[in-house]
Specification:
The protein is α+β, with helices and mostly antiparallel strands. The protein contains three helices and four strands, in the order H-H-E-E-E-E-H. 48% of the residues lie in helices and 20% in strands.
């Protein structure tokens, strides 16, 4: 009797687990999209990304006021410190020299001068480019480590 009850319980358990498994079984897979639709989806995504890049570039140019390409029109000819945080700077803009007083709070136009005839065409770079300085510092650091070993 005990064995029959045990088999009945096992049978009921198997029956319930089979019904539960059938109820939770995954539905049949949906049909794969056609290659044309996949290609169309990829092209649409690419167009959206490229449109966003062009739109952001236009917006950046609009916000910056077109000053990205204007750096070659403006040259710092000379400058000197006249105080702890004050400078007098000569800037060349379209053939005219502007003498500027520069403080941490503001920039004042002190004078406008025509470009002198004897002035050199290209202003010398004010400082060594950062990339060259960084390369020299890295080589110096490597040579220092090699000497210690």
């Amino acid at each position: 009797m005990f064995a029959m009850t045990r088999r009945a319980v096992q049978g009921a358990f198997y029956l319930v687990s089979g019904v539960a498994a059938a109820a939770t079984a995954a539905p049949p897979p949906a049909a794969a999209p056609s290659p044309f639709m996949s290609l169309l989806q990829v092209l649409f995504g690419l167009a959206v990304v490229l449109g966003a890049i062009v739109g952001l570039a236009w917006l950046f140019k609009r916000v910056s006021g077109g000053m990205l390409g204007a750096s070659n029109r403006l040259k710092v000819v000379s400058g000197t410190m006249v105080g702890p945080k004050e400078r007098v700077v000569i800037v060349e803009l379209e053939g005219e020299w502007l003498v500027l007083g520069v403080t941490p709070q503001q920039v004042n136009l002190l004078s406008k001068l025509p470009r002198p005839e004897g002035a050199e065409q290209e202003a010398a770079p004010a400082a060594e480019p950062f990339a060259r300085w960084l390369k020299a510092a890295m080589e110096k650091g490597r040579n220092g480590k090699a000497g210690r070993q």
